[in-house]
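Supplementary Data S3. Sequence and structure tokens for construct A.
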Amino acid sequence: MQIGIDSFAAVVSNPNTGKTLSTTERMGNLIQEIETADHFGIDVFGVGEHHRPEYLDSAPTMILAAAAARTSRIKLSSAVTVLSAADPVRVFQEFATLDLISRGRAEMVVGRGSFIESFPLFGFALQDYDALFAEKLDLLLEIREHTHVNWSGRYRAPLTGQGIYPRPVGRLPIWLGVGGTPESFIRAGSLGLPLMVAIIGGDYRRFRPLIDLYRKAGQMAGHSLEQLKVGIHAFGFVAQTQTRAIDLTYPGFERMANTIGKERGWSPPTRAQFEAACSPMGAYLIGDVESVAEKVLYVNRVLGGISRLSFQMTNVMLAHEDMLAAIELLGTRVSPLVKEKLAVN
């Protein structure tokens, strides 16, 4: 199993001083986080895509390219690329360029996104949400397979044999990011694409029927189980003790949940609810080394085996040194413990 980290490059306030970091300082810290993850053996680092004032990741490939020049082994991915509102030709060119800079370490996770700001920003209609994604995914996969592309669709001018350059080092990995709709799982399976499931709440076991649906659709389409990789993206954080992990992460979680929740009509979060989500049966991978490792193994078991688990560790009220310490613990203690126990079993 690969252990990864995802970041949403949120603007961060230092809880010790109350000061909000400048955008340049925050970006520098993010690059250092990726360097630290590379140094301590994390397998992959993903950067999200948002077009909102509280995030700095509207151009994730730029961030990943900067990190590529300062790392040597870690895979660099999106988390996710909002393909519905992007041009697949340009997306492929950007990630192929990233792949060359990183010497073959680029990947992408494509999805429809959970925010809608990119649709009016780039001139697309929200009612075409799924149709845009289906068509653009078809073109992206066609570009991956062929340098010269003949293709036509509804939402983009046709391609009549034009060459798409540059080409990546190898076959660029493309994962399909999904939420909870059965159609998305079936689509990923039918196409034989690795699956990245965003789980931000609830019981992990409720996703097992959907993952089984993905595997069944893939096998019916003639794809092997080796092709049908499953990744999980979930809130996570590691500290020396369970209490400290919760103390460090709850203030930022509360602020984030109140900001987004107000837009979406959520009830205000409580500390008790957060602690329950950090418990052995909860959705969050937040705690000390042993409890987080045990929960990773639990997730692997109840979902029938997963290939990657990415910790969404961005927190808007967290000191930079605490983030770096969490990355070190994840890479040097949680990841080896998980892999050792999987090898034994």
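Construct B, processed identically:
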Amino acid sequence: MNKALNGKKILIFGGSGFIGSHLVKNLCTHSCQIEVVTRKLNFKSSLFLGNEPGQIKYKHIKDFRQESIDKMVSGSDVVINLIGILYEKKKNTFDFIHSKIPMMIAKACKKKKIRYFLHMSALNINKIKDSKYALSKMKGEQLAKEYFKDTTVVRPGVVFGKGDNFINFFYKLSKFSPVLPLIGTPEIVKKKKFISKIDFTKRVKFQPIYVGDLVNFIIIKCLSKSNTFELAGPMICSFEEIFDIILNSKKKKRFYFPVPFFIATSLAFVLEMLPNPLLTRDQIKLLKKDNISNQGLQTLRKEIKNPTSIESVIDTYI
């Protein structure tokens, strides 16, 4: 528990989402006032459990303009930005959501003399140069720090836990599909003279972090200034190993089908036409870089002594 939060007013952008819901719930164990910014009228989440009446308040924002954000942050002690998207829509582009909104929040924090601003980004975006998601996230970090120099940035790896879109997606897929895709396997490397090298041992690697560990880290570090924290969980695993954990939990068997990146990219091109695409070409670009960080695990362990693995909690939420 961070006793320094007692009496503080904490404003959360993105507080109604997956990570935000868990953050709000954990913050309720502290003697602080929590304000959740939402675009939904009369929004009330069943996931939020206030420790005392009136601890949680909802602030409706019609659209993200500088004047609106200035008004939202006024009077806050801590501002946290968790807003993010996995794919673009006409009104919600990566540039606007990941770059311009953090910039406007940072400007508002400086204008209203907010002491602490924590912005959530993503792991390894500084190492990926061809993904619009990664580039927009990196730009958002840079703009936030430019306009509010004391910004603290948290870069988590893939996040799992109750309500996630990662483990739950593959679990739902396994319920009706006899086949699960091993995206990125085998790796096909083009060589000179039209000869390709095929590596059947290549696997996309993840180091998932438990949402409870992530939000507890945020609570501990939200009163810090001018820091960037990479975070990763205790287990490095591939798609195949993640599928094994899910299927073993439900005592199911499925076939695993290798899907090289060039086939996955073609498939994503078709899936992008759906209103809520299951896979995009930009996400394929992200998968080409392993989502792992040894430093991220070390950083997490400094504050969370026994980080949670997928295996230890998967039965509690799928």
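The chain has two domains: 3-163+207-235+292-307, 167-204+238-287. The longest helix spans residues 94-111.
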